[in-house]
């Protein structure tokens, strides 16, 4: 299938912009619904989520308003403005969903719900493994009230993450 050169760049740009939006939101400890609540409905969770996934284009005006809402300069939200430039991608974080199913719900309930939400959003129901992003791990660390490295060790001890995840977290925190 032929794809116009510009369309790849724009969808890639939208995904990078979305990743920046998600990173700012999670740094502020906000869920998508938290954004909706804090903005008193001005920013709908479903809309912000679609911006973050790159599924929906955001106008310059709306981006400026969102930057204002988060209290950050607009350039912080734009792709390609990462201090120091992009390095090699960190190792992937892969959850073992089969092992997760055997962890008691009182321990793993939040992680199980989070994983189910990601599967639902991606339409990914293979049921064996699920790749998560650094942002997801940071969000889960907030939910569990632990640092990403402490949570990573806990997930490794449950058998849900493999030991390679340590490299991803040390890459992130280093």
TrEMBL record:
Residues 21-77 form the HTH cro/C1-type domain. One of its GO terms (biological process) is negative regulation of DNA-templated transcription. PROSITE patterns: HTH_CROC1. Gene3D superfamilies: 1.10.10.1930, lambda repressor-like DNA-binding domains (1.10.260.40). GO terms for molecular function: DNA binding. This is Transcriptional regulator. It comes from Streptomyces avermitilis.
């Amino acid at each position: 299938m032929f794809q116009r050169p510009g369309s790849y760049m724009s969808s890639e740009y939208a995904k990078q912009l979305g990743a920046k939006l998600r990173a700012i939101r999670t740094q502020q400890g906000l869920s998508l619904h938290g954004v909706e609540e804090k903005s008193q409905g001005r920013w709908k969770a479903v809309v912000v989520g679609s911006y973050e996934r790159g599924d929906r284009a955001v106008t310059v005006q709306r981006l400026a308003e969102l930057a204002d809402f988060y209290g950050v300069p607009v350039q912080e939200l734009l792709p390609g403005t990462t201090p120091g430039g992009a390095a090699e991608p960190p190792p992937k974080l892969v959850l073992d969903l089969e092992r997760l199913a055997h962890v008691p719900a009182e321990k793993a309930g939040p992680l199980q719900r989070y994983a189910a939400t990601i599967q639902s959003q991606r339409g990914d129901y293979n049921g064996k493994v699920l790749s998560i992003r650094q942002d997801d791990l940071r969000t889960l660390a907030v939910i569990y009230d632990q640092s990403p490295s402490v949570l990573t060790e806990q997930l490794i001890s449950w058998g849900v993450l493999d030991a390679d995840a340590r490299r991803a977290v040390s890459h992130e925190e280093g």
